[in-house]
Amino acid sequence: MKKITTYISIISVVLIGLTSCELTTPIDEIELAYQLDAETAINDEASARLALAGAYSSLKEEPSFMLLVPEALSGAVSPGTSFYRLEIPSWIANQPLNLEEAGDNLTYDGMAALYRAINDANWLIEKVADIDDANFTSASAKNEILAEAYGIRALSHFYLLRYYGQWYDTSSEYGITLRLEPIRSGEAFPRNTVAETYTQIHSDLDFVIANGADITGNRGGLNSLAGSALKAKVYLYQGDYTMAASTAKAIVDDAGGSYGLSPTFLELFDNTTDAMFYNSEILFGLRGVLQAPVPNTRWGFAVGYNDAYVASLSTGTMTVGAQTINYDSNRMSSTTSPGFFGTNNLKYTNIFSSGEEFDLIYHSRLAEVYLIYAEAAARSTGAVSSDALAALNAVRIRSGATTTGGDGFETYPATISYDAFLEAVRIEKSVELAGELGEQWFDLVRYDWADGFGSGFQVSDYKSSATDPNKFILPYSLLTLEAGGRIEIQNPSYE
Q1: Which label site among 205, 281, 404, 448 has the fewest CB atoms less than 10 Å from its CB?
Q2: What digits encode the pLDDT tens for the residues 324-362?
Q3: Residue 160 domain flag
Q4: 3-class DSSP state for residue 402?
Q5: Where are the alpha helices (DSSP H) in 81-223?
Q6: Which of 65-74, 159-168, 299-308 is most confident?
Q7: Is 211 inside any structural domain?
Q8: What's the CATH number where 261 sits?
Q9: Which domain holds residue 418?
């Protein structure tokens, strides 16, 4: 057996992370181009920051197309009029394919890419910890770099869990495989439980919160505030509404100064200048600039936003007492529209867009934190408090809602019932976050699970083809299972 050499990404160079799902070629026969030896490359602050940029670059690569998978599962998008891969129609039909072949296997590609980002983070965590503090410009610089690496690992594990694990059931054995050390061999490991996965994610986020940079100096990295926002979201997914509410409320209460809701909705997505990177609402986003745009792997998805889906939210209404309240004014119609070849979305630059544009993947912004608090506060008490209602309405007011008490795009009144309030929060998130992280799909599954799958709120009431809860998550690719010697078990109904 030849000596196994390990490498780490530097800036835009992609690490070939040797995870169990990539070992279809003997590990000692893989030739890597444009790499540095990870054992010696990270030895001072400058090299650590360079390697950190490489880890973020890995997170921008193939994982970026995965953000559209829940859009397909929810019915927000339809196949485009040109080429598309085999798996996309299966996601739209809520019957994800379990493919064996490489090439067009997006399930395989997406999992492997997220593990690459984790592996980059693990190299940083191991090597930076060994560097003497004297090699850093300040006492906090070392821990801030480590915090961003822990944040990348936590975010990547969380995304893997919600795509491939039964994230909604904390008692489930179907978590994901946690990777907490750099990969030095082709050894495969069994899946961790969902509870173990959440415990590790929270542990990593605790380090981010305690040691991360202040948002004023690092809005494009996983700073302390972004760590808190992600922690609130993770609690919500777990169904720990008390902790989700208290964590989100602390962020909402402290809003002001260097961060707060954007004065208007559309300026968040003005990609004509780099001012979008510094909007007060952005807690964490991965940036693309004119010289180095976010890798646009999404164009190969060949989907466009569904006219009927956009219209249902743009023109939908809720009746509260005698008042008819519109779901939206122009957020949906101004940011999402059908696409010919790839998504046509103001929130993500299309590969065929004309002109020079900046782009940003919106991993965390304050409006979502407001809505997390609104839902979690209500669920934790079984009632609609004035604070929860104010949080929901704050996002609508920022987008132009009035408080006149007539019909139209207005705030929700204090007379709203508990059930109607939860539905209002779900709809508001669907409108506000459309085309960003696919939250509308995960909310549908969460609401269904909270009522007991099939016994109250049901995903199939909103997406008729989504009748099998086992198909609410993606399968493990057969390539992944075979490469790991079947030590990782398949998700139910995909055997």
Answers
A1: 404
A2: 999 998 898 888 765 555 555 667 655 555 556 778 889
A3: no
A4: strand
A5: 87-92, 106-130, 141-164, 194-211
A6: 159-168
A7: no
A8: 1.25.40.390
A9: 239-464
Contacts of 247 (CB under 8 A, 6+ apart): 228, 231, 232, 235
The bridge status of strand 282-288 relative to strand 77-79 is unpaired
Q: Is 243 exposed, middle or buried (0-12, 13-18, 19+ CB in 10 A)?
A: middle
The string of DSSP letters for 293-334 reads PPP-GGGGG-EEE-HHHHHHHHS-EEEETTEEEES-SSHHHH
* Residue range 120-144, pLDDT digits in tens: 999 999 999 999 999 999 989 999 9
Task: Give, to the nearest 10 degrees, the angle between helix 45-60 and helix 141-164.
Answer: 20
Pairwise CA distance, residues 484 & 308, whole Å:
42
* Amino acid, single-letter form, for residue 247: T
Taking the alpha carbons at both ends of the chain, their separation in whole angstroms is: 34
What is the 8-class DSSP label of residue 494? -
In the Cβ-directed half-sphere of 78, how many Cα atoms lie within 13 Å?
12
> What's the CA gap between 396 and 328, in Å, rounded?
9
pLDDT digits (tens, 9 = 90+) for 442-462: 999 999 999 999 889 999 999
- Residue type for position 368: E
Q: What value, to the nearest 5°, has the Cα angle with vertex 80 and ends 74 and 81?
A: 150
**β-bridge partners, 410:** 402
